[in-house]
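Standup notes
- HV: blocked on the assembly model, inputs below
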Amino acid sequence: MGYGIIEWICVTIIVMKCPVDNTELKLKTQEKAFGYCCSHCDGVLIDSKGVKEFKHNFNTNILEKSFNNIKVKSSEYYCPSCSENMEYSDIGDMEVLICKKCTSAFF
Ligand SMILES: [Zn+2]
Ligand SMILES: [Zn+2]
């Protein structure tokens, strides 16, 4: 047995769906970043680990900004990672859906 079965369980649970259109998200890795991509609306979900790496790798605090933004609007969407209600954060040139509970961002 060993660890094989544990790995299998983890992989099965981590199937995430797009908060907007419910399409299954595919984990994509690039040289600089990784995110869960939606093939339907081209959205990308970045989890808390990815948010930290994003800042470091792209040298921008745009995602931190979206979390610290006080101008947030409620949305009808739910976080694919923890099922919490997500909020719209308007950071000027773009609108990001954020989950404050697990610090995931979708844009
Ligand atoms: Zn989508
Ligand atoms: Zn969440």
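- HV (later): unblocked. Residues 4-106 form one domain. Residues 65 and 91 are 7 Å apart (CA to CA).
- Next: hand off to the docking folks.
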